[in-house]
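Tutorial, part two.
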Amino acid sequence: MKNSFINLEDINLTKQDKRIFTNFSLSIPFGEKINIFGKNGAGKTSLLKIISGITSPSSGKVLIDINMTINHDIFYIGHKYGLKNELSVSDNLRCILKFNQKAEAINHILEELNYYDMQDKLHNKVKYLSHGQKKIISLVQLPLLRNKIWLLDEPFTGLDQNIVDKLINKIDKHTSCGGTVIITSHNEKKQFTNIEL
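Running the prediction step on this input gives:
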């Protein structure tokens, strides 16, 4: 496991009698940008959930660096974003930061919203935001929480190119500091290590 956050060894996953993975192995190193790509149903989301500890493989090993814990070092953003519709953007982010014992980052919420030109949505209820705006709010959490590994399920879908470029800059900054980012998509991405399922 030298120089790797997580190693997946001979992972097998079966759901409802359908084989999703067969003897799948992957080393997840420090400072890497990985794009897991493939068609719908290929198992991209399932793989992220195995890495995050949400789902257990049917067999195989998930080996984690001894200096890491899944709860504190990995942050997963799926399709539902984990936001509460009845709370404001501010209240959502404050609750998430306090729950993760990162209350000191509350002072930086407006700075991160401003980066995505979303500062005027601070007091809006999440239920009134568009799909793309909700995704941006979920992405705002990433630098605030300071997890080592970001697992992002199709993060560029529904975002305009300007926001995509801003997110890529955040990803580059995170990996340059030794963090790792794993995304899923339907095709290969430039400047990422591409792994097809």
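The chain has one domain: 30-51+69-196. In part three we will examine how such features are distributed along the chain.
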